[in-house]
Design a protein that fits this description.
Keywords: Membrane, Transmembrane, Transmembrane helix. This is Transmembrane protein. The chain is mostly helical. 82% of the residues lie in helices and 0% in strands. The protein contains 4 helices and no strands. The chain is elongated.
Length: 144
């Protein structure tokens, strides 16, 4: 395996692990903890997802750099990396602002109608996870 391949594989699986741990474990479980109210859970979630998204941007940029510097047989690795990075961009640019607006309203005491933005975020998260699994696998397969 080339250095670029090793970097992409490592960063991909670290990124994937972070998304699994935060999005699919921490996020739903925090609301089940005793004493965690909706405002407290939203406050924690905002901090945690801000940190996760910042780390994801770092991993995405590092993967992009490794992709540019490396040599890849076929198109599977660049395309799947592009899908994962595009999913992150959609979350950050299109979905997070709607989630922030909704959580701001809830934290200000204005429940209002429920938003579908959370479901969209989860759907894009599933796409991102699938792309990261595919990316990591494609890098490992291309190394053999």
């Amino acid at each position: 395996m080339t250095t670029a391949g090793a970097v992409v594989a490592a960063l991909t699986f670290v990124w994937l692990g972070m998304v699994f741990a935060i999005s699919f474990l921490e996020a739903p479980l925090k609301f089940r903890a005793p004493g965690v109210t909706l405002p407290i859970g939203l406050g924690i979630g905002r901090l945690v997802f801000r940190a996760l998204n910042a780390a994801e941007v770092v991993w995405a940029v590092a993967i992009l750099i490794a992709l540019v510097l490396g040599s890849w047989p076929g198109v599977a690795v660049p395309i799947t990396a592009g899908v994962a990075i595009a999913a992150l961009a959609v979350q950050l640019v299109a979905v997070r602002p709607a989630l922030t607006k909704r959580s701001d309203a809830v934290l200000a005491g204005h429940e209002g109608p429920r938003s579908s933005a959370h479901l969209v975020y989860v759907a894009v998260e599933v796409i991102k996870v699938a792309a990261l699994i595919w990316l990591g696998t494609a890098v490992l397969v291309s190394a053999t």
